[in-house]
Specification:
about 375 residues, alpha+beta, 2 domains, six-stranded mixed β-barrel, two-stranded antiparallel ribbon, 11 strands, about 15% strand, elongated
Length: about 375
Amino acid sequence: MTLFDLARKNAWRKPLRTALLMLCVSVAFLIYGLTASFVSGSQGTSAASDDILGVMSAAGRAQPLPMAHMNRIAADPDVAAINYTSRMRGFVAVEKNVVAVSALDPQRLMAVSGKELGLTPELIDALAAQRDRVLVGRALAEAQGWRVGQSVTVTGFDMARRGGSRDWSFGIAGIFEGENASTDTYFMIADYDYLNAARARNRDTVDAFVVRPQASASAGDLAARIDKMFANSAAPTRTQSEKQFLEAFLRQYADVGLIVDLVVSAAFVTLLMIVINTMVFAVRERTFEIGVLKTLGFSGAQVMGLILAETLFIVVVGGGVGLGLAKLAVSFSDPALGLVFSMPVLARAVVIIVILGLATGALPAIKALRTPVIAAFRQR
C-alpha cells in the first residue's frame, strides 16, 4: 500500500467530516474562480495590450478631439498605424438592453487592431461595402441572437441625428471572433463616415485616436511625445496604453483587484482555520495509531508525510471541484458579464491549492512527528 493509499483511506475514515471539509474548500475555490474570472475579464489582463495606445482628451472621455490631430500624430516616425474612433452607447428595443458601437475608419482598422479583434480582409471588405454596415462581436451576437444579414436599430443615449431622431439603423455584415476567449467582443464596429455625416453635433471630431507604435519603438516614450505635442493646444491629450486605460477606468468606481483580493483572502483564512482545527482533532484521535506506525518502523518523516498527503488530498479534491464549478459557471454565464476563466487564473489556483494543503497539514503533521511512542500508547 502506497503513502497515497494510506492518506486516502485515512481521509475517508470519517466520511461526513471529510465531505464537509471538501465542501468548505470547494466553496472557497468557487468564490476564487468567479472573482478571479471577473478581474481577468473586466481588466482585460490577458487581452489588453501594453503597446496599442489610446489618445484621448486630457479633459476627460466626454470631451471630443479635433480630427486635425491625426495628421500630426501620424507624422511621428514611431507611429506604425493610426485610426480614430467615436463611441456611441445606446440600446436595442428596451433601455436595459445596452450596446456599444465603435465608429472607425474601416480601411485603417486592420492595420491598427485587426489581429487583436480577429478580423479578416473579408470582414473589412464587407464592412466597407456600404456605410450603414456593421461588424458584430461574437459575444454580442450570441447574447442578442443576431445573424449576418439582419438589420438592427440602436437608439443612441448621447448621439442624436440631424432632425432630432436618436435611432440608427445598421445591417450586420459579419461577426468577428476576437483573438482569444478573453478579448472583448461585446460591441459593434461601424463606419465613422456614416455616423459623422448624420449626427447633429460634434461633427469632424473623435473620442480617441488609436495608435500602434513601430515594433522597435517604446510605447511609453511615444505616448509622452504625443501629449507634449498638444500640451499647449486648445485640445490637450492624455495618451495611455489599452491596459492602463482599462485599469484606470475601473478605478473610477473601485479598486476591483484590491476588493477581490480581500474577499478571497478572507475566504481562505477562514478555510485555513477550519481545516487546521479539524486535522489537529483528527490526528489527536489517531495518536495511538501513530505510535503503532512508529513501532512498525515508520520514520517521523514518513508519518509527517502521511498527514501532509491526507490534507493535500482533501484540499486538491475540494479545490478541483470548486474550480470545476467556477469554470462551468463562467461557460454558461452571460457574455455581457465578461467573465474569463483564463490559464493564469487556473495556474494561480493550483499554486494556492498546494500552499493551502501544505499549510493546513503542517501543524498536525509536526504534532504527529513529535509524539513519542510511549506517550502515544498511553492514549489507548
